[in-house]
Amino acid sequence: MNFKFIIVAQLLCVGVALSQAKPKAPLNWYLTDPKDSKIFGVGADKAYKLLEGKSPKEVIVAVIDSGVETDHPDLKDAIWINPGEIPNNAIDDDKNGYIDDVHGWSFLGGPGGDIDAEASELARMYRVEKRYFGNRKENEVSLSDNDRFANYLKIKQDFEKEKAETEQQFAQISVVSHYMENVKAESNGVFSKKTNKAYTPKDDIEKKIKKRLGTILLVYSANELDKQITGAVKSMVDRIKMNSIDADSVRKVVVGDDPYDMTDRYYGCNRYEGPDAMHGTHVSGIIAAKRGNGIGIDGIASNAKIMVLRAVPNGDERDKDIANAIRYAADNGAKVINMSFGKYYTPNKSFVDEAIQYAAAKDVLLVHAAGNDAKNKDIEDSYPTRLLNNGIKAKNWLEVGASSSKSGMKLLAEFSNYGANTVDVFAPGVDIHSTVPDGKYEDASGTSMACPATAGVVALIRGYFPELSAEEVASVIMLSAEPYNKSIGIPGKKKGEAKGTMSQVSITGSFVNAANAVSYLLKKN
């Protein structure tokens, strides 16, 4: 589920449990150091004190995401500018195959506009196989197609299950939305903790919703709740719609490419902000918002320049777009790639694998969000993944889970995926204040936030210690991560089963820490 709708996941009890009332996390808590504040931030502020008098090299961080507001006041000075491209002259000046790619590229736009909503990968796979087999039955399938037909039946079963679950969730959230509109109707258009408390439910269902929302409003603001419910309704409507039509045909009309022609790299446009740049803008602020300018927030890496690569729609991203975005980043100077996205089906994994290996050959470190479903990735991994089809584990990779500003049983984000053998480290991902479109700032939660918190530290390290390779930086991040030896709550587990240790949820059993990494490298040098 998208980071914007974490509250909705809690409301529907999708893989996570609702916390009890909590004080708001300290602003910019993700920059602090646990040795000083007892809060497991990344220690960025402390790292800069250790680096006083030293000058870093610029590091390009490619943000593969929904788009970025490049003129945000806190980001405009941190946006990558392609030195070989003359803006708006409709010429591919640097001969890289992309016209006017001044700040990056969009693989989701073309002559027909820009892709916003997309189908799930499972729905696309189902439609392709259904088109191939038609109404054929098992005894009508040729021997050579037996395995494919068996796989089609599995895809069909999974698709129908996903469809039913989505429709059920939509029905549930629609009832909540309708309830909130009823509260507004009797309160001059206002939904708040106070108006919810004063509202008289019309039936037993509304009584339950009122009680549930009353608990949520102890944790989140009414404005945030209202925004997420509205956004979730739109997102689910879009998803149901796109899953019920031929999304491939829509793609061909809008972008103009064949989504299954993996040899085609040169499609798209330079409208890299896209229709909804909230996710990518929030991610970018965590990495590189201007430090010390007296406005908004401080990003982690003062030396980072954000390369904007739009490849993640409202729905599942396509393997082709992700592979091409990784290759674009590697070819155009990025040394870090932030990947705050993921899905559970991947029909063209080999092409993404090749792109990951291509990035490794170009000395690029990929940082990936573990996901927000409170799942054990050792049992069910998401994609893309460092485990390649050839059995090799990519070494230019960091997989990141999300943590909070709390401690003990509440230290890990209750929604975060985890894995003793698949998730490298944890990083701040709850109540993270960062940049959003229209020059604004908002809190958001998700492994989508933990990922750029880690990518920011990687960019910092690569800037001050440029002699290190991508693989060496990944190793330093893991070696220097801050341990936590007390009991923690394992995400998604029932109360009696949740108690565990960090070694059960990650490879290092630790948290990303820039100050530790810098101290380690200064001593080593």
**CATH homologous superfamily title of the largest domain:** Peptidase S8/S53 domain
Question: How big a fraction of the residues is strand?
Answer: 5-15%
* Shape, per Cα inertia axes: globular
Residue-averaged pLDDT, rounded?
Answer: 94
| CATH topology assignment of the largest domain | Rossmann fold
The rounded distance between the terminal residues' Cα atoms is 43 Å
Q: How many domains comprise the coordinates?
A: 2
CATH class of the largest domain: Alpha Beta
Strand order of the largest sheet: 2-5-1-6-7-8-9
Number of continuous helical runs: 15
Count the strands? 15
Low-confidence region ranges: 14-22
Give a quick precis of the structure.
The chain has 525 residues and is α/β, with parallel strands linked by helices. The chain is built from 15 helices and 15 strands.
Outline the structure in words.
There is one protein chain. The chain is α/β, with parallel strands linked by helices and 525 residues long. Strand 10 and strand 11 form a beta hairpin. It is 38% helix and 11% strand. The longest helix is centred in the N-terminal third of the chain and has 40 residues. The strands form 5 sheets. It has a 7-stranded parallel sheet with strand order 2-5-1-6-7-8-9, sandwiched between helices. It has 2 domains: 308 residues, Peptidase S8/S53 domain (Rossmann fold); 123 residues, no CATH class. The radius of gyration is 23 Å and the shape is globular. The protein is built from 15 helices and 15 strands.
Layout of helices and strands, plus pairs?
Layout: H1 6-12, H2 34-37, H3 44-50, E1 59-65, E2 104-106, E3 109-110, E4 113-114, H4 121-133, H5 146-185, H6 193-198, H7 204-216, H8 222-244, H9 247-254, H10 278-288, E5 304-310, H11 319-331, E6 336-339, H12 349-361, E7 365-369, E8 397-403, E9 425-428, E10 432-436, E11 440-444, H13 447-464, H14 470-479, E12 482-483, E13 488-489, E14 499-500, E15 510-511, H15 514-524
Parallel strand pairs: 1-5, 1-6, 2-5, 6-7, 7-8, 8-9
Antiparallel strand pairs: 3-4, 10-11, 12-15, 13-14
Helix pairs in contact: 3-15, 4-5, 5-8, 10-13, 11-12, 13-14
